[in-house]
Amino acid sequence: MAYFNNQKEPVENVETNVWSCVNDDCQGWMRENYSFEKEPTCPPICHSEMKKEVRVIPEMK
């Protein structure tokens, strides 16, 4: 939905459970509900282990 003068509707940030890569040289992460594995590895970058954490990111609708 667009507002007057082509301003876009603001996106709300929410706390979201994510998987975050444990490798200090890697910044890979993904939303928890995007993985079918119980404990995924970092697929796109380094294939290291990942840990659960909570981030404040834009809500997906």
Automatic annotation (TrEMBL):
Pfam families: YdjO
Protein known as: Cold shock protein
